[in-house]
User: Fold this.
Amino acid sequence: MDRRNCWEVLLDRSTKAVDMARQGCIRASSRVHQLEAQMQRLQALQTEYSNRLRESQDRAHGISQTVSYRNFLVQIGGLIDRTIQDLNAARAVQAAALRDLQRTELEQNKYEALIEREDLKDRKSTRLNSSHVSESRM
Assistant:
């Protein structure tokens, strides 16, 4: 097996690694977007129920309704905290996936350059051999 074939095998493997890394980046980005949307929904819900609590306190009401609103707001706060943790973890995964993609693309570029260099050597060698053959015939 000559060097060019080795580089081609390594290029094929690195191309597959790049594809897998891209898929990982897409999945990680999707998860981050999903969590960001969840955070926005929770914050909107929190704002809505905070307003309801204020309105409820401004008018005559039962104590149970106020307690229910407050308990729900506490639960939303817990969900927001958990979503923030998940979002930070997802962003870390996304950053790692991006670093992996960059590393695999760099590797792929390296093998492409090695194949090009090998092709250039072969062309030079072929030209050199053909010029030697034509000189020897003279």
